[in-house]
UniProtKB/TrEMBL annotation:
Its cofactor is Zn(2+). It is an enzyme of class 3 (hydrolase). Keywords: Hydrolase, Membrane, Metal-binding, Transmembrane, Transmembrane helix, Zinc. Pathway: Nitrogen metabolism; (S)-allantoin degradation; allantoate from (S)-allantoin: step 1/1. Residues 41-94 form the Allantoinase composite domain. It comes from Tetracentron sinense. This is allantoinase. GO terms for cellular component: cytoplasm. It catalyses: (S)-allantoin + H2O = allantoate + H(+).
C-alpha cells in the first residue's frame, strides 16, 4: 500500500495546492471586464433629462456618475460648462428615477432553478428597472435558515446576477429559540428575517407562532434589522370556512376567496401587535422593526396597523401590484394565474388599498414575484384550491403600478417613495433608493407615455412568462435603460453580456 500512502500524503496535497492556484487563476482572469458589465464603456459620464426624480422634486438637469456612484446632481443647464468631465447620455423628456428596490422576490435558487433562478430572475428585474432585489428565504431548496444555507445562496448567485441581490433569512421554530443560531445567520449577512404565521406551502419552512416571533424580534433589536411577517392566521377548524372539494366549484375564484377571508389577516395582525408594542422608544425591543408583507385586507387589518403606528410601534407594511391592479370580481373561472395568498379581494377593497397607499398608511410596494412551473399552476384544470399560489410579475411592476395608478393621480415622487426610498430604508441600504450625490448610481430611465401590449412578442425574461397574471394586458411605461452601480445593464431589449450585480451582505 506504499503507492496509496504516496497518493494520500504527497500527491493529493500537492494536487490540492495546484488546483487552488488554478481556480484562483481562472477566477481572477475570468472576472468580467467593465466592457462586459456595461453597455456603455465610460467610467465617468452625465445622464441628462428634463425629468429627473430627486428627493427635492422632479428637476431638469443632469446626474454625474463616476466609478459607479453619483458624484453630483445639477439643475438646469449648469452641467454644460463641466461636460469636459465625461460623456453625456441625453434622455430628453424620459423620466430618470432611482432604480426600483424589490424587497420581496422569490428567485428559487438553489434547488428549484426550474421555477426561476438567479439568472432569468435578475435579467427580468433589470429589464423592469429594478436595480436591487431582496431574495426570500423560501421556495429555494434548502431554505435560507442558517449560516450554512446562506452560504449556499451566495455561492449559487455568483456570476449570475444582473442586479444587486440581498437576502432575507428565515425565522423558523428550529432557530427561533436558539439565539446563537440566529446570530450566526445575521452575522453571515442576511438583511433581516422573514417568518410565516400560517403554513408556507414549503415543507422545510414551517410556520412560527407569537413566541417565536417575539424571540426573533429581540435578537433583531440588537442588529437593528427588520422582521418581515406573512400575516395570516388559520383559525381552528370550527371557524374554518366551509369549502369542500367537489361540492364548491374549485374553478370558481370565489370558492378560493372564501377559504382565506380577511379575518385571517386581522387575527394575525392583532397577534403581532401584542409583540410590536415592545418596539416603542424605551420598550424592551427598541431597535427592532416589524414589517408586514403583502397586506391585502384594507379594512380592519389596516386600521389596526394605523393604530399601532400612532402608538409609536416600529411597524411598516407593504402591498403588491396585484392587489391594487386586480379585483376578485374580474378573475375568470379557472384562471389560476391569479391565485396568491392572501387572496386578491373585492373592488372596494382595492380602492381602499389605493387610498391607504396614497395617504401613506401603506408604506411601500413589493412584487412578491413567486413563480413556479406552469404544470403546478394547473392552468388546464383551473383548480383554484389545488394550484400553486403565487403571482409572477417581477419585470412588470413599474409599468403596472404606473398604468393602474394613473387614474388615482399618483406622482413620480410617490412611485419613488414606494419603490425605492422606503424599501432602501427597510433593507438598511443607505446608499440606495435616491438620486443623490454619494449614492450608488442605480437608475432607471423610462418613458411613462409609451404603451405596449404584453403579448407573446413582448421580450420577457422570466423563466415562465406564460404564467404571469399580466400577460394579455396593455400597459404604459416603457423601461429604456437600467443602470446598476453605474453599469448600463439593460437597454431596450439588450442586457450587458456579463452579470455583474453584487450580492449584498449586511455587516
Ligand atoms: C443552536 O444553534 C447552534 C448553531 O447552529 C447549534 O450548534 C446548537 O446545537 C443549537 N442548539 C440547540 C439547543 O439546538
Ligand atoms: C409556540 O410553539 C412553541 C413550540 O415550538 C411552544 O413552546 C410555545 O408555547 C408556542 N407559543 C404559543 C404562543 O403558542
Ligand atoms: Zn412571498
Amino acid at each position: 500500500m506504499v503507492e496509496m500512502d504516496f497518493l494520500r500524503w504527497r500527491l493529493l496535497p500537492l494536487l490540492t495546492i495546484l488546483a487552488s492556484f488554478l481556480i484562483f487563476y481562472i477566477k481572477t482572469s475570468s472576472k468580467p471586464s467593465n466592457s462586459e458589465c456595461s453597455l456603455v464603456a465610460y467610467d465617468r459620464y452625465w445622464i441628462t433629462s428634463k425629468r429627473i426624480v430627486t428627493p427635492e422634486g422632479v428637476i431638469s438637469g443632469a446626474v454625474e456618475v463616476k466609478g459607479g456612484s453619483i458624484i453630483s446632481v445639477v439643475k438646469g443647464e449648469e452641467w454644460h460648462g463641466k461636460v469636459g468631465r465625461g460623456q453625456v447620455i441625453d434622455y430628453g423628456e424620459a423620466v430618470v428615477m432611482p432604480g426600483l428596490i424589490d424587497v420581496h422576490t422569490h428567485l428559487d435558487e438553489p434547488g428549484r432553478t426550474e421555477w426561476e433562478g438567479f439568472s432569468s430572475g435578475t435579467k427580468a428585474a433589470a429589464a423592469g428597472g429594478i436595480t436591487t432585489l431582496i431574495d426570500m428565504p423560501l421556495n429555494s431548496f434548502p431554505s435560507t435558515v442558517s449560516e450554512e444555507t446562506l452560504r449556499l445562496k451566495v455561492e449559487a448567485a455568483e456570476g449570475k446576477i444582473h442586479v444587486d441581490v440581498g437576502f432575507w433569512g428565515g425565522l423558523v421554530p428550529e432557530n427561533a429559540f436558539n439565539a446563537s443560531a440566529l446570530e450566526g445567520l445575521l452575522n453571515a449577512g442576511v438583511l433581516g428575517l422573514k417568518s410565516f404565521m400560517c403554513p408556507s406551502g414549503i415543507n422545510d419552512f414551517p410556520m412560527t407562532n407569537a413566541s417565536h416571533i417575539k424571540e426573533g424580534l429581540y435578537v433583531l433589536a440588537k442588529y437593528k434589522r427588520p422582521l418581515l411577517v406573512h400575516a395570516e392566521v388559520q383559525p381552528d377548524s370550527k371557524s374554518y370556512p366551509e369549502v369542500k372539494d367537489g361540492i364548491d366549484d374549485a374553478r370558481s375564484y370565489s370558492t378560493y376567496l372564501k377559504t382565506r377571508p380577511p379575518s385571517w389577516e386581522e387575527a394575525a395582525v392583532r397577534e403581532l401587535l401584542t409583540v410590536t408594542k415592545d418596539t416603542r422608544t424605551g420598550g424592551p425591543a427598541e431597535g427592532a422593526h416589524l414589517h408586514i408583507v403583502h397586506l391585502s385586507d384594507a379594512r380592519s387589518s389596516l386600521d389596526l396597523i394605523k393604530g399601532a403606528k400612532g402608538s409609536g410601534d416600529s411597524i411598516t407594511v407593504e402591498t403588491c401590484p396585484h392587489y391594487i391592479a386586480f379585483s376578485a370580481e374580474e378573475i375568470q373561472d379557472g384562471d389560476t394565474r391569479f391565485k396568491c395568498s392572501p387572496p386578491i379581494r373585492d373592488a372596494t377593497n382595492k380602492e381602499k388599498l389605493w387610498e391607504a397607499l396614497t395617504e401613506g398608511h401603506i408604506d411601500m410596494l413589493s412584487s412578491d414575484h413567486s413563480p413556479t412551473l406552469p404544470e403546478l399552476k394547473l392552468l388546464d384544470e383551473g383548480n383554484f384550491l389545488r394550484a400553486w399560489g403565487g403571482i409572477s410579475s417581477l419585470q412588470f411592476v413599474l409599468p403596472v403600478t404606473w398604468s393602474y395608478g394613473r387614474k388615482y393621480g399618483i406622482t413620480l415622487n410617490q412611485l419613488t417613495s414606494w419603490w425605492s426610498e422606503r424599501p432602501a430604508k427597510l433593507a438598511g441600504q443607505e446608499l440606495k433608493g435616491a438620486i443623490a450625490s454619494g449614492n450608488h448610481a442605480d437608475i432607471v430611465v423610462w418613458e411613462p407615455d409609451a404603451e405596449f401590449e404584453l403579448d407573446d412578442n413582448h421580450p420577457t425574461y422570466h423563466k415562465h412568462p406564460s404564467i404571469s397574471a399580466y400577460m394579455g394586458k396593455r400597459l404604459s411605461g416603457k423601461v429604456l435603460a437600467t443602470f446598476v452601480r453605474g453599469n448600463l445593464v439593460y437597454r431596450e431589449g439588450k442586457h450587458a453580456p456579463a452579470a455583474c450585480g453584487v450580492p449584498i451582505l449586511a455587516r
